[in-house]
Amino acid sequence: MAGGSAPGASLVDRTLDVLGAFDERHRRLTLTRLAARSGLTPPTTLRIVRRLLAAGALERTDDGSYVVGRRLWDIGLLAPVQTGLREVAAPFLQDLQAATRATVHLAERDGHRVLYLDRLSGVASVPVVSRVGSRLPMHATGVGKVLLAHAPADVQQRVLADLRPLTPYTIVTPGTLERQLERVRRDGFATTREELTLGACSVAVPVRDADGDVVAALGIVVPSLRRDRERLVAALSVAAAGITRLAR
């Protein structure tokens, strides 16, 4: 269950429970599933859903299920991190994509998951599951490992306690991941090899603020890192430094 407001909760609380039923693994929900995941009764869920449909916050698909509407996306773009960091980073992402012809990501930590702020698709046929606004596990992504390596201790402990396998190559042993995070802090970059999706590898570097704190991560997804890892790390590092300089 994703929601479940306390008895006597306000309409706002219940509406947030309905919206909170959606996540990266539950992008399309029937009314029954919405009610179950929000912890509300079907009649209450239906009343809220009708209001959200009328406002454009939800949309109904041809099969009768519901998806998040465009209006929520438009509102989300108004968040300060979207209008600040994304705008500063956009030219650097474009340059990286043009130089590498690979998919490029800008991401930040949202709790114990990775929030993708921007993505430019590459031309190579590499499976990429991220979307702008989506949240993915930290332990199986390059940008996630960078952010996890510099996250508070309680966040690291929570992630290390729930290392779920996503492919046969996902790191699920806490000690192994802890050693990788130490190398990320030492070397300044993180890598993955088919840990989120088969056929996709990634490399990522931190983006820092003026005080040197890690506020985001910049990453590239490619079919293999066997030959170009150093070149990609260098290109990412230059771009990250440029973002830091302009974001001050």
UniProtKB/TrEMBL annotation:
HTH iclR-type domain span: 9-70
Ribosomal protein keyword on record: no
Task: List UniProt keywords, sorted A-Z.
Answer: DNA-binding, Transcription, Transcription regulation
Where on the tree of life does the source sit, at the highest rank? Bacteria
| SUPFAM superfamilies, A to Z | GAF domain-like, Winged helix' DNA-binding domain
* Family matches, as Gene3D superfamilies: 3.30.450.40, Winged helix-like DNA-binding domain superfamily/Winged helix DNA-binding domain (1.10.10.10)
Q: Where is the IclR-ED domain?
A: 71-248
Presence of the UniProt keyword Transport in the record? no
InterPro entries given for it? GAF-like_dom_sf, HTH_MetabolicPath_Reg, Tscrpt_reg_IclR_C, Tscrpt_reg_IclR_N, WH-like_DNA-bd_sf, WH_DNA-bd_sf
Q: What is the protein name for this chain? A: IclR family transcriptional regulator
Identify the taxonomic lineage of the organism of origin. Answer: Bacteria, Bacillati, Actinomycetota, Actinomycetes, Propionibacteriales
